[in-house]
């Protein structure tokens, strides 16, 4: 994710989860599934705040205000909302008409604010490493009813190194093999370091809440713009200029065909204050996943979207 795996450990991720969205004659998103004039798709989220016993609002036990602001940012980005950092006037940019809602009820049907706090010092889990299977031991709700998001209590020394990670959907689109597809029995969801969840004043380019935007793109089937790291096999989105190397920073450069790369695309590892667009083909790809992937599609009809 803009960072590791999907933004994860930018270095580790390049090796672990190299996403791609490429140009190839494999299964492409049908033109008729263009997002323009489509109905808005709403998806429920549960944020599992894994902390180390701090009071609410301190360190990894993030405040409710910061969490809600992060979801606002996510929606500003996906809806290309005017007057926000998520707005763009790029000819290939568009409103995805995908929105995210903090779950309104828990699995047992009780009222819920979408935030599930877990004191990791009180829960004994096996050490499995950094990934959904590890954090699912603290909390894991039905992924057909909720998108599970874990804010991870990593040490401050990981700032700007470990950002986030997401699993991808197993669906009939080209390049899916470059995503982190869960195996049978594996957990699926999104990890984001608490340091990079929401807005903050940290001394890092990833401080405006775009880590979650990037990782959500992976969760909905998007690859990094460089995809398979070749000019022929990059991200399978024709309106993102082909590039065969990771795109970092805030300065555009020439890609494979001499076109300037979309430095502002959320599926790069660009600086947070530069990113502000999903392309029309990327949006069509995400909406295809929400329509054709059984688990992702079921989210659109989840009871968690409604008050109990």
Automatic annotation (TrEMBL):
Recorded superkingdom: Bacteria
rRNA-binding in keyword set: no
InterPro entries: MetalloPept_cat_dom_sf, Peptidase_M43
Record-level GO BP terms: proteolysis
Entry keyword set: Disulfide bond, Hydrolase, Metal-binding, Metalloprotease, Protease, Signal, Zinc
Gene3D superfamilies named among the record's database cross-references: Collagenase (Catalytic Domain)
Annotated ranges, domain Peptidase M43 pregnancy-associated plasma-A: 204-290
GO molecular-function terms, A-Z: metal ion binding; metallopeptidase activity
Family from the record: Belongs to the peptidase M43B family.
Name of the protein in question: Pregnancy-associated plasma protein-A
